[in-house]
From TrEMBL:
Domain named Copper amine oxidase-like N-terminal: residues: 41-96
Pfam families: Cu_amine_oxidN1, Gmad2
Signal peptide positions (record): 1-26
Organism of origin: Paenibacillus lignilyticus
InterPro entries assigned: Cu_amine_oxidase-like_N, Gmad2_Ig-like_dom, Mao_N_sf
Transmembrane feature ranges: none
Keywords: Signal
Descriptive protein name: Copper amine oxidase-like N-terminal domain-containing protein
Domain Bacterial spore germination immunoglobulin-like: 111-183
Domain of life according to the entry: Bacteria
């Protein structure tokens, strides 16, 4: 009789578990993400992080939120009191313009310009160039007091001779750093210096 009673209890318990499984399975959603086979590039900066890769799910791209914040110049913080992620853009300390340059301001006219801001670049070396839409008028480097990961203030004094100023067009400033991996330009930002019209 004990064996029969044990069998019945076991069968009932097994049936209850089997009946509950579809309900539990329906509550758990499965997502299959694949590595994205394409780069994410924002203002000339390519997102690269092997530990937190770009993923793809059914044609939608997924990038780690803090990385998106860095690329777009937004602050991303976890508010432990409200238990929520907070994204801020374009104000105070969070006005980062990309992962390497922030708080950039341009002033001046007539070929004389002052550019200030903060940078965090590899080995404390940032680069800048001025172009008229067709040609580079100058390209130089600037040594910062500290290299990444520290932010360092910079001030550039840019002088373009009057005979090189465009008659019709815009002088554009490009600030960037050269990649330690392949020597290419990375973290590129573009700013208009001045527009000329006859």
């Amino acid at each position: 009789m004990k064996h029969i009673r044990g069998f019945i209890v076991g069968a009932v318990a097994g049936s209850m578990i089997m009946l509950a499984m579809p309900t539990v399975g329906a509550a758990v959603k499965q997502y299959v993400l694949g590595d994205a086979a394409y780069p994410i590039v924002v203002n000339g900066t390519t997102y690269e992080d092997e530990s937190l890769p770009v993923m793809n799910y059914k044609g939608s791209t997924y990038v780690p939120l803090r990385a998106v914040g860095d690329l777009l110049g937004a602050g991303v913080e976890w508010n432990s009191t409200l238990r929520q992620v907070e994204i801020t853009y374009g104000t105070g300390e969070t006005s980062v313009q990309n992962n390497a340059f922030r708080n950039v301001e341009v002033s001046g006219s007539g070929g004389k310009y002052k550019v200030t801001g903060e940078a965090r670049v590899f080995e404390a070396m940032m680069n800048y160039a001025v172009e008229d839409g067709h040609n580079y008028l100058l390209e130089k480097n600037y040594m910062l007091p500290e290299g990444a990961p520290a932010w360092s203030a910079f001030e550039l004094s840019i002088v373009i001779p009057a005979n090189k100023l465009p008659k019709n067009g815009t002088l554009m400033l490009q600030i960037f750093e050269y990649s330690a991996k392949d020597g290419g330009k990375v973290n590129v930002l573009h700013f208009p210096l001045e527009t000329f019209m006859e």
